[in-house]
Batch of 3 targets.
Target 1
Amino acid sequence: MDVRAGFCAIVGLPNVGKSTLLNRVLGRRLVAVSSKPQTTRDRILGVHTIELPGETPPRAQIAYVDTPGVQTGRGPLRRYMRDAAIAAAEDADVVLLLVDALDPKSKTAPSPDGEANDSDMHALLAASREHPLIVGLNKVDRLAKTDLLPMIQAWSALAPGVEIVPISAATGDNVDALERVIASKLPAGPALFPEEMVTDRSPQFIAQEIIREQLYHQLGKELPYASAVQIETWTERRGELVIGAVIVVERESQKPIVVGKGGSRVRELGIAARAAVAEALGKPTHLTLFIKVREEWSQTETELRKLGYGGDPS
Ligand SMILES: Nc1nc2c(ncn2[C@@H]2O[C@H](COP(=O)(O)OP(=O)(O)OP(=O)(O)O)[C@@H](O)[C@H]2O)c(=O)[nH]1
Ligand SMILES: [Mg+2]
């Protein structure tokens, strides 16, 4: 049977809640979330099917694409992340521009004719000009009610016909309404993915994301920007997953930060990550973490590719 089906790119500045929203609609932890900007480094697909009672067709399959927060910056890793976001907006059927309603800068929408300091936002808007644009005003759980209406009016001026939907990805408030708005913009046709498919990412990738998320949580501001996680070994023994993962940092001096006093940090990290991986993949898990130094990995394309960030981000 036909459904409404298509791609919805979730784009926006770093830290606005894009990955939190994807995890919320999928009802599971697929991607890393943290209070540190630029947590997401790659495009990630998450497929969600919703019912549309009384409509024809009565279901929609929304293929969400979570993207890295767009920010100007130098170096191959930042450039790669920026290109991944802009390409996702170009390819999508619908673009969801997520905005942090708590950020004072969100009180006004970027002006359509462009300002130099907003160059990435404008690159995104240009990329999404071909597709319906929805603005999600996120984090309204912590926004004063009186601030919301002026913000909705300000963002309505962004483009003709743009829909503004206030949500809270953290509490789930109004997220179902947002999904219906997204669905209404998708073309009717055959489903794009098999019914049971949630993501195109492997269990290895999901484990890697969860370990990286724990790394962000445990280290907070002390975390070196260019740290990465790589799965080195992956076996299944009598129903238990046995994983060996490496935390990659760029300099010898960063190693003690991750290890902590007498190894306390990496131990805590291992315990939390093991539990989260076991929960996400639904299997008992044994996790061993190693720390490695790979000089200036984020500066060289070959090292980036080794860590899974190179090549075509599709
Ligand atoms: N209060 C509140 N906080 C939220 C909400 N959604 C996300 N957050 C918080 O905002 C921070 C950033 O969330 P992420 O989902 O990692 O943001 P992102 O846009 O994916 O960030 P990047 O991947 O770095 O671009 C986290 O601390 C979240 O807990 C929300 O609806 N309300
Ligand atoms: Mg993210």
Target 2
Amino acid sequence: MAESSHWLAGRVAVITGASRGIGAATAEAIAGAGAHAVLAARDGVTLDTVAGRIREATGEATAVPTDVSKIEDVEHLFAVAEETGPVCALVCAAGVLTPAPFAETTPEVWERTLAVNLTGSFLCCRAAFGAMRRAGEGRIVNIASLSGVYATEKFPGLAAYNVSKYGVIGLTEAIATEGKELGITAICISPGAVDTSMLRRANPELRPGLTPFEVAELILALLDSPLTAASGANIPLFSNA
Ligand SMILES: NC(=O)c1ccc[n+]([C@@H]2O[C@H](COP(=O)([O-])OP(=O)(O)OC[C@H]3O[C@@H](n4cnc5c(N)ncnc54)[C@H](OP(=O)(O)O)[C@@H]3O)[C@@H](O)[C@H]2O)c1
């Protein structure tokens, strides 16, 4: 068999939010490129379904039910991943969106949104950073949103979500700064409307401009490139749909 041209081939990659939507499509693309995909999300049943699909396509996958907002779950996720081999890639796709007008945004909605979208990304990136430092290499892709990009149109009811995504963009820059000397890069992507259950819940009227598979293809291309000079960048994904 011809040797794979993918950097990912033979490496271990952790993908959060891998039970559906962008995360599931990304996990399948990464496994298709020859990596062992370690899948994380809370719902173990749907996670197992995605892992099963990957194995049916002769890929390698391990499902680890995980709540990314819980440090003990994240530590367990990376401990399982490292049993498979050095963790060299991470995609943080886990996210929640609970629409609420600003004046009715409860502290619970605010805290939960930040806990999953921002603290969850921090906990996973921090665990991955340690593993990547040990491995001597690593590539991280975080998923923010156009909602977290300065001077782009904002939709009402998304204050907590928007702020969490601004944070993810900042987190990615910070990781890039400290990863530079260690061979660790971090890139953020900020999609517009992608055709997933999150979008349908958030705004059923909004026409999606991207499919999860298109976003997954981009993430795969990013992970397959060193991108050293671009580390820390955020890539907004506008679409014309
Ligand atoms: N769809 C869009 O238009 C769009 C646009 C810009 C950015 N994004 C971002 O892209 C990412 C993926 O979104 P999506 O559209 O694919 O959403 P989705 O279909 O709702 O999928 C969200 C994923 O996150 C997981 N998740 C939620 N809470 C979690 C937690 N506490 N711990 C671990 N996993 C958790 C879900 O699984 P469980 O429920 O089983 O945990 C699911 O796998 C999110 O960060 C989202 O903000 C989406």
Target 3
Amino acid sequence: MPSKTFVKFPVIDKHNNFETFVPVGIVEGQNPGPTLAVIGAVHATEYAAHDGVARFWESLDPTELSGKVYVVLAADVMALCSHTQYTNPIDGKNLNRVWPGKADGTLTEVIAYTITQEVISQADYVIDSHGGEFDEAIDLFIITHKAGQPDLDQKTLDFALALGFPFVEVTDAYGTVLGSGTGAAEAVKSGRPAVTLEAGGRGLREERHISAVYNSLQNALKFLGIKPGQPVPWAGQSIKLNHGVILKTTQLGLYQPAVTVGDWIEKDAVFARVLDFDGRLLEEIRVPEAGVVLDVISARGIKANAFAGKIGVV
Ligand SMILES: [Zn+2]
């Protein structure tokens, strides 16, 4: 029987004596078919990414579908409702660094474990919906991972390109950057094609980013045959990036980006400056290669050795 149900899975942190829940929507389609898992609100202030997942959940009609769809409507409820960027307010851990989680860990680890058991392990394909946090500007790109298994890696890349985002970055599922502990990388390591969507940022809830997430999730349903139809290249042909370059500060001070997301930046050009509090220049952060600006910190101050942004090299 086709059905659309909403479940709150309990999550208990015995170390901090704290209990919360993970809200999950589950849609069982009219006919048999594959299972897609969509995870929203791993990070608290990535609002457009959350809104796109919520709109997707509302749109799902079980009588139109073949297969099953799990939608984690808010992975980290406590971070979301406390407006806590990057980390969970109870144990201070980053949910996107602790996958696949621990049954007897602290809150963030138990959240990851619960979603892994109840959702990811039931799924054939996984999409984790992110964006920039409150202090971070992002337009649209996808991160996915190579596990070193040709069949799986090809399926993962085909899936990522079908979603329709303008840029797809492929990183190493076992690498030190966005590899170990991230939701998509750990899902790929467990044999499931998985991607991380990055849409919007700065706490904004812009229609461009919300509809991008919604459209890409609809494309996922069509690509997998859960819903009839072909994926729509709503942003044109996706470009597969050769690699990403993360830029970091060396000085603490006032942060002044010299670029905005979507800009093209030439090799050795200035990406951002760090100033002392009297306005004197402390450093210029330059890019080692030409590329497209994917991510820029938009906060006024910044620490030394902090993430300043990222470019994608074509
Ligand atoms: Zn995130």
